[in-house]
Amino acid sequence: QVQLVESGGGSVQAGGSLRLSCAASGRTFSSYFMAWFRQAPGKEREFVADINWSGGVTSYADSVKGRLTISRDNAKNTVYLQMNSLKSEDTAVYYCTARVGGSYRYWGQGTQVTVSS
Asked: What DSSP letter does each residue of 35-101 carry, written as one string?
């Protein structure tokens, strides 16, 4: 069982920055492939970024490339999402998730990000 707790959300003006954190429980965090998803009002949950166990391989949705950066600190059991040059369309609830056995099995409760123009 893995518990994930996101933090760092808030309200910011367009062009601003936020850093989201996701703290994980358990001793095997370093073996998990981690990702961030988001869900805007009235829309389906969508992929944002993911990162492999070592942090050496990452991928991003086209809509966030060059603005958002995913990273992890296995010593702290934490994955991050640095969000720069935020746009109003980035407004959503952001979720972190751990992939186990090929599926995103564990999810956090989400943290709200609101970007005003």
From this structure: EEEEE-TTS--EEEEEE-TTS--EEE-TTTTTTEEEEEEGGGTEEEEEE-S--GGG-EEEEEEEEET
Give 22-63 pLDDT, tens digit per residue.
999 977 888 899 999 999 999 999 999 999 999 999 999 999
pLDDT in tens, 83-112: 999 999 999 999 999 998 889 999 999 999
Tally of CB atoms within 10 A around 66: 9
* Cα distance between residue 29 and residue 89, in whole Å: 31
Q: Backbone phi, then psi, for 43, in 5-degree steps?
A: -125, 165
